[in-house]
Amino acid sequence: MDSLPPRLQMAAKYIVDNTNEFGLDPIRITAAKAGVSANTFVRLASHTGFSSFDEFREPFRVSLVEKYDSASGEDWIDRMSGASDFGRAQAGTARNEIDIVKRSLRLLTADKAEAAVNMLMEAQSAYVTATRASYALAYYFHYVGRMALPNLHLIPRHMGSPVDEMISVNPQDVLLAITFPPYSADTISALRLAKRNGTRVILISDSELIAPGIEVDLFLKVSLQSQHHFSCFAGAMAVLECLLFHLVSQGGEQAQTRIGKYEALREDFGAYWQSKLPKLRRK
Fold first, then answer.
1. 42-93 pLDDT per residue, tens
2. Which of 24, 104, 166, 241 is deepest in the core (most CB within 10 A)?
């Protein structure tokens, strides 16, 4: 990779990161997605010893057929399980992760997903809260979601309690709370304060009965079964990703415009690594 010219590096990186799409898309679509010209991929094919672009892409097409052969099922897990003791352990945790995601997505019916998205989009202010390990889920949901939903707020934002930032919550607001066993006392306090103020509540957890006196407007149950001591968050992340998809889709052109502005701002100030120094946009 390092020996390639910059444009060929971009094309090669796209192929490495998007093997399925590369096997499916026509060359012009591939080039547009990679941000280079179609001729760049032709040059890359020649540089790597292929006589044509189609010959270069053919192994990726063959791989797709093998990968999505309906008869193959989960044979790859069985093969891994029989390879070694470590492979057997890896196969076990892989099956567990797949099962967790499947169960969590099965529980997220279309009606529940639509209700959650409508509640968030119609709210005057939407708050997402979690603490300890699950804070990472709330942070990611807010990081992406705020680009489609500008009135989405992450609490706590600093080293405090969620209730510190809920002094003005009201019936026009929504609180999305994420908590898993052992349930966070701070999150439970936030849930109680929300209901006291008439704020609508969406709870993502393994159980609706997380503490006495907790009432929610919408409960999204996720599977947490883990093969280690702590909860597995794969199912919860899959549910959050579904909600993010709908938020961005429902946001329409306004959401796309905000996302574009965020990306432009980050590029202008060098948020992402690149081989050249960022060039500030001029009005």
1. 999 999 999 999 999 999 888 777 665 544 557 788 888 888 999 999 999 9
2. 104
Domains 6-67 and 104-266 belong to one CATH topology: no
What CATH number was assigned to the domain covering residues 6-67?
1.10.10.10
Please confirm whether the linkage preceding 156 is cis (ω < 30° from 0).
Answer: yes
Q: Angle at CA 31, nearest 5°, toward 258 and 27?
A: 135
pTM above 0.85, yes or no: no
**Domain boundaries along the sequence of the chain:** 6-67, 104-266
For residues 258 and 146, the answer to whether their CB atoms sit within 8 Å is: no
Q: Which residues have a Cβ under 8 Å from the Cβ of 139 and sit 6 or more positions away?
A: 154
The identity of residue 50, as a single letter, is: F
Tell me how far apart the alpha carbons of residues 196 and 275 are, in angstroms, rounded to a whole number.
53
User: 123: closest CA among 173, 81, 89, 48?
Assistant: 173
Please give the CATH topology (third level) of the domain spanning 104-266: Rossmann fold (3.40.50)
Q: Quote the tokens at residue 48.
A: 């790597």
Summarised one tens digit per residue, pLDDT across range 246-277 is: 999 887 787 778 778 777 777 777 777 765 55
pLDDT in the model for residue 148: 87
